[in-house]
Amino acid sequence: MTVRVVLADDQALVRAGFRLLLETEVGFEVCGEAADGAQAVALAREHRPDVVVMDIRMPGVDGLVATRQITADPRLSGVKVLVLTTFDVDEYVFEALRSGASGFLLKDTEPVDLLHAIRVVAAGEALLAPTVTRRLIAEFAARPEHRRPDPSALRELTDREREVLALVAGGLSNEEIAEHLVISPATSRTHVSRIMTKLGARDRAQLVVLAYESKLVTPRE
């Protein structure tokens, strides 16, 4: 399957580098470039890409606002957002995940890791494995002004589903969850899918945010 990508970054050289990387790799197609968030949203609506690679800090409409607009549009339910940032601690990144972004990477990541990240996000798995992601989510989830606790949010989950959600929040993949709980990967995927349906989550990134906000897990864990 060819992964169709929109690149959103205010620096033309950065976009050119990403385009060159993707177009020289089998299985990727760049269907648009945006210099700001407004253009990114317009291109997402026009082309319905699999993934929008989104810079956070752009003039005019920034990546955070653009992410909210894309993930809130029911017509773009199949469009995933992968946030790229030059900052390893950036408050906007956590807000982007809360708004529906499927994960993020630092811009200095290795090319092979970027390609892998786009594939993972396109497949709906969401990218939450990097240590910096877990650290940043933990940091901002711990701040009262960023927390919206809802003790009843997890009421519909079974004990096993709560256990799986806690492992998702720890950054574990379906395969790692299966190994940890001694179940099959298929069963692990089923649990995660049911949790997302019950909680109305767009993807695993939102599950992580919800796990912290509902206090199912805490940063120190």
Short recap of the structure:
The protein has 221 residues and is α/β, with parallel strands linked by helices.
Structure description:
Helix 2 packs parallel to helix 3 and helix 8 crosses helix 9. This protein has 221 residues and is of the alpha/beta class. It folds into 2 domains: 125 residues, Response regulator (Rossmann fold); 67 residues, Winged helix-like DNA-binding domain superfamily/Winged helix DNA-binding domain (Arc Repressor Mutant, subunit A, Orthogonal Bundle). The model has no long low-confidence stretch (mean pLDDT 83). The longest helix is centred in the C-terminal third of the chain and has 15 residues. The chain is globular, with a radius of gyration of 17 Å. A 5-stranded parallel sheet has the order 2-1-3-4-5, sandwiched between helices. The protein is 49% helix and 12% strand. It comes from Kutzneria buriramensis. Keywords: DNA-binding, Phosphoprotein, Transcription, Transcription regulation. One of its GO terms (biological process) is regulation of DNA-templated transcription.
